[in-house]
């Protein structure tokens, strides 16, 4: 009976050791993945900041006015060209 108990305890000990090794391996894999995802997040945040800055530059009123005048040939109407419509 004691040999049987010893065998069971030995198998349980070996099984637990294998489980610990597997979980440490899995932990390392997940940590590497986490590090990669954090780096990717940081790169995306930097790119987002650049895009926000670019958007702010393109959306400035003087930039829009410049493009409207140069590319589209637009201009402010003269006073005699303005017609006020009243109900």
Automatic annotation (TrEMBL):
One of its GO terms (biological process) is FtsZ-dependent cytokinesis. InterPro entries: Cell_div_FtsL. GO terms for cellular component: cell division site; plasma membrane. The keyword Coiled coil applies. Keywords: Cell cycle, Cell division, Cell inner membrane, Cell membrane, Coiled coil, Membrane, Transmembrane, Transmembrane helix. Residues 27-54 form a coiled coil. It is a single-pass type II membrane protein. Essential cell division protein. May link together the upstream cell division proteins, which are predominantly cytoplasmic, with the downstream cell division proteins, which are predominantly periplasmic. Belongs to the FtsL family. This is Cell division protein FtsL. The lineage of its organism: Bacteria, Pseudomonadati, Pseudomonadota, Gammaproteobacteria, Lysobacterales. The gene is ftsL.
């Amino acid at each position: 009976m004691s040999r049987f108990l010893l065998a069971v305890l030995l198998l349980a000990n070996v099984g637990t050791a294998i489980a610990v090794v597997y979980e440490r391996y899995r932990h390392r894999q997940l940590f590497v993945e986490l590090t990669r995802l954090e780096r990717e997040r940081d790169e995306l945040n930097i790119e987002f900041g650049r895009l926000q800055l670019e958007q702010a530059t393109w959306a400035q009123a003087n930039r829009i006015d410049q493009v409207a005048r140069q590319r589209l040939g637009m201009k402010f109407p003269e006073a005699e060209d303005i017609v006020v419509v009243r109900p």
